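batch job 7 of whatever, protein = Peptidoglycan DD-metalloendopeptidase family protein
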Amino acid sequence: MNTFDWSKYGFVRVTSPYGWRNDPFNGKKVCHTGVDVVKSHQAPIHAFAAGEVVHASMGAAGSGFGGFGNVVAIKDSNGHLQCYAHLDSIGVTVGQIVKEGQELGKQGTTGRSTGSHLHFEVRSKASPSFGFGHHIDPGHYLSTYFSAHTQSENKKECKTVPIRLNNQAFCEGFLEGSITYAPLRAISEQLGARVTWNGKEAAVNGTRMLGGKLINGRTYIPVRAFEEAIQVKVVWNGQEVNIIQ
């Protein structure tokens, strides 16, 4: 089920989700290749993600955008096309590199449309015909796209740190600023400590673990927090951490 929060980007409602629906013109069952979302007529439409503009004009018949009215198509870092259709006007040009959040044009009702809205579509291919027919669920794609990029940015900002237990190589943590973080459950269980969770925060042997971070589904805590909770010695030599029991 698509749970992408369109309201976060200023859209007040979804008028037609991705998937099968009755065509608003002839009533026949067809696959809706994108999602229709609404702000207000001529409201600014912004790029969900950065990329290169590969199409910025009225969609001509046979081009892959026939009936879509004014379309801006952006090729993102995955090589996918993020398509913004039925725009009232266009504010970017082909070949332009746009940033996340940059205005692309205004919401409209050009092309085969029953009212002012944004038809947003994602295609897994950029050619031929701008990937026509290779549409995927746009809400699901944006959710995974942003998740992957957030994880990538976290990795760029953090330095990986090897962690040893009792002088034996065990796992990896990371250094962020001046604080070294280690995986909570892996180390606790290896050292025979008891981990509990109350729905908000974790505790080790009854000691609250503060300052934790959730990354890729794993909880990391400042490695010094283990000293009090498990009564171990933490040694940092500038390159790796050694936790000695």
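notes: Residues 159-244 form one domain.
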